[in-house]
Amino acid sequence: MKIDASKPLEYSTEENSNKIFGFWVFLGAEIALFATLFTVYFVLVDRFASGPNGSELFEIGPVLLETFLLLTSSFTIGLAIHAMRHGYKKAMMFFFGITLLMGLGFLAIEITEFFTYVHEGATLQTSAFLSSLFVLLGTHGAHVTFGFLWGTAILIQIKRHGINPATANKSFIFSLYWHFLDVVWIFIFSYVYLKGLM
Amino acid sequence: MDLEKFKVHGGVLIYGAMVSIALATLAIIIGLTVFKKWGYLWREWLTTVDHKRIGVMYILAALLMLFRGGIDALMMRLQTAAPEMKFLDAQHYNEVFTTHGLIMILFMAMPFIIGLMNVIVPLQIGARDVAFPRLNAVSFWLFFFGAMLLNISFVIGGSPDAGWSAYFPLASIEFSPTVGNNYYSLALQISGIGTMLTGVNFIVTILKMRAPGMKLMRMPMFTWSVLITNVIIVFAFPVLTIALALMMFDRLFGSQFFTMANGGMDMLWANLFWVWGHPEVYIVILPAFGIYSDIISTFSKKNLYGYTSMVASMVIISLLSFLVWAHHFYTMGQGVMVNSFFSITTMAIAVPTGVKIFNWLFTLRKGRITFTTPMLYTLAFIPIFTIGGVTGVMLAMASADYQYHNTMFLVAHFHYVLIPGAVFAVIAGFHYWFPKVFGFRLNERLGKHAFWWIIISFNVAFFPLFILGLMGMTRRMYTYSAETGFGPLNMVSFAGALGLAIGFVILVYNIYWSTRYMPRDTTGDPWDARTLEWATNSPIPAYNFAVVPTVTDRDAFWVSKQENIPLFKDQIKKIHMPSNTGKPFILGVIFFFFGFFMVFSMWVPAIVSGVGILITLCAMSFDRDHGFYIPEKEIIATEKKLRGETV
Ligand code: HEM
Ligand SMILES: [Cu+2]
């Protein structure tokens, strides 16, 4: 394995830089995926049948908290990558761990929200609007869940093997993924929640 | 548990299928045990990450699926051969045309093409492998087990029956209460994820792994077509992923996306399906264009005419392919403006396609043409595909389409595009590249026999359908009365279908015959060809090229032969290889069970297998295998042996 020392660790081998490029391409597919889901949501948003609509259902409090957690976690994963570039293993693991915990917090609130909705009689089956709402949020939430598990696996590998081209590469790709989920959430926050509350 | 829902009731045919599946499985198991091949199968194939072997497995699976889809086609043609036939009942006919369409497009044409591109593209760009060999294995096994999942629907629980386009509300739980469309949503999902990963893998491979000097505008046309196709895959497949997920939610969890009550919108399905569906037909046809381009230029002994315009027209086609989807449902009430827009975009596609046809003709002009089997398929493709294209423009005119929509005219049209556009291309590519992979050619005489059977029978089978369509015979119609007058032409078409079957039998027999009797090719270049894949030995050694080639021109190998410019300048050095892994296969198996349990709403086992999937992925992440090196001595020995020199 040729290691190019002039590049950051995560780019240092050909395989590494291919993986990062490949992940960007994959994010292209993810954008297409979420774009489709948003389209479905916009098509169905006014079709709430006999169920509640957005302004009756949404509450700004928990959503702001979710947004706060996810945006901050995007910042901390950035700090983790920064620490990684400087070779500070401890600091990196600390910020990485914080990121994952905030992701977990986000999930906890989202799940509570889902329970509240269902409790108020707004289920997946109630109306086309609610079906699309649950599936859009659920797909994002499932991505966060997957990210949590994936990130945990990476964290363990960093603990075991330290910062090397392989773990640096994985962490960097994970950070791309995590930022991406944040961007998607910003769209959800603005176009689903804020617009729905208006 | 309620065993009733696993059963399929359908008389002799179904039981026959069950028995033959059971017997075939038993025969394979016994065969492997008797000949002690389990270890070989596992070590050399099931765990392989070699792009050539993965490609070969794709092609084998595709041939198997061609057989299955072909049997479906024969059954349909037999059922409609004469008025009031009693061979299949209405439900059974519905299931057969649905699985025929799905299998032919998703599990035959596409994997065949992905198989060829696996084998050939890394060679054409002078690479040692694809960018992500393990991911490639994951792609294959997801495709394979997705295809298997759809195939068992025939004998366990019942096949999907709402057409390959599965329009709602017909495909909803209300009107299609069997598990058939659950299979649809899960089997396609699993294999679709595999395909999307293939897309990522090949984009990176082509953009990042080219040999020194292989600029983008020096790439062989097949590689270009594959690059563009994979871009389409990456942007189109996520739409299918969502459509299928929503379908699954509607059918399994009672959501209201496509329902008729509670705000659901059935047309949303039709739109999502075709936003993926139309690009999908270009996913199978663009690589075919690439294959034909390479073959035409090899067997005319000329470089491809209008290289740049070939690339440009493919790029334009790929963009337009995302803007035409509503031409599949002009008659479903979206108004004049929308129809006009889609009508114009659809007709516009004919322009870049026409450019390509003329480029091929100009390449042929004044060429020194040799009429080999692959070249014959290519030459036959041009006029037949043009008929398909012209009838396509007829269908593209929204107002005229009210006349043709959902008739046999349409069925004739899309077979006239798909069969020459995809099937002839993969057969041509198969004959063309066969010696590269196996080290001997297929017999030309048998090959030409099969060719004439296939070409003539194809027209006999499908031309009558144009006329039947104009006479008013609708598609997906399981029988008709004698008074309609549809009988005679349908009988002709049935005869054509039988002829096609004979052609395919000869083709398969040719593989068997050639394996036994054809002489070995030690040159590596039996066709006197032009592109890099012919510069290495056949069969291709595991490492592809002993030395990475240096490219100075388009048609690099041809130029190096003509002008004596050496392609391989470096010394032979040890080569790094990825090691095999069983995890992609295991992942595929677990996905299969996950899909199966979901189909039957068996939640606990489904969750258990879902966790299994996560654990396997985790195990893959923790893998710390860095591959191995093939030593210099071994490479030199292999090279000598393949060139027929004694070691
Ligand atoms: C090999 C010879 C083939 C024959 C004899 C054949 C015959 C047929 C017939 C009889 C139908 C149903 C017509 C109807 O009743 O509506 C049909 C439908 C169809 N065929 Fe083929 N076919 C062949 C090959 C292919 C290939 C190679 C492809 C694709 C690559 C293909 C794709 C389709 C599709 C998509 C449908 C529509 C299914 C639906 O209505 O949902 N066929 N074919
Ligand atoms: Cu179309």
From TrEMBL, chain A:
Keywords: Cell membrane, Membrane, Oxidoreductase, Transmembrane, Transmembrane helix. One of its GO terms (cellular component) is plasma membrane. Belongs to the cytochrome c oxidase subunit 3 family. Residues 1-197 form the Heme-copper oxidase subunit III family profile domain. It is found in: Cell membrane. This is Quinol oxidase subunit 3. It is a multi-pass membrane protein. The lineage of its organism: Bacteria, Bacillati, Bacillota, Bacilli, Bacillales. The keyword Glycoprotein does not apply. Its EC number is 1.10.3.-. The chain crosses the membrane at residues 21-44, 64-84, 91-109, 129-156, 176-194. One of its GO terms (molecular function) is oxidoreductase activity. It is an enzyme of class 1 (oxidoreductase). Catalyzes quinol oxidation with the concomitant reduction of oxygen to water. The gene is qoxC. Its main location: membrane. It comes from Paenibacillus agri. GO terms for biological process: aerobic electron transport chain; ATP synthesis coupled electron transport. SUPFAM superfamilies: Cytochrome c oxidase subunit III-like. It holds the Pfam family COX3. It comes from the Bacteria. It catalyses: 2 a quinol + O2 = 2 a quinone + 2 H2O.
TrEMBL record, chain B:
Pathway: Energy metabolism; oxidative phosphorylation. GO terms for biological process: electron transport coupled proton transport; oxidative phosphorylation; respiratory electron transport chain. One of its GO terms (cellular component) is respiratory chain complex. Gene3D superfamilies: Cytochrome c oxidase-like, subunit I domain. It is a multi-pass membrane protein. GO terms for molecular function: copper ion binding; cytochrome-c oxidase activity; heme binding; oxidoreductase activity, acting on diphenols and related substances as donors, oxygen as acceptor. Its main location: membrane. It holds the Pfam family COX1. It is an enzyme of class 1 (oxidoreductase). It is found in: Cell membrane. Residues 36-552 form the Cytochrome oxidase subunit I profile domain. Its EC number is 1.10.3.-. The chain crosses the membrane at residues 12-35, 56-76, 96-123, 135-156, 186-207, 227-249, 269-292, 304-328, 340-362, 374-398, 410-430, 450-471, 491-512, 584-600. Its cofactor is ferriheme a; Cu cation. It catalyses: 4 Fe(II)-[cytochrome c] + O2 + 8 H(+)(in) = 4 Fe(III)-[cytochrome c] + 2 H2O + 4 H(+)(out); 2 a quinol + O2 = 2 a quinone + 2 H2O. Heme A3. Belongs to the heme-copper respiratory oxidase family. Catalyzes quinol oxidation with the concomitant reduction of oxygen to water. This is Quinol oxidase subunit 1.
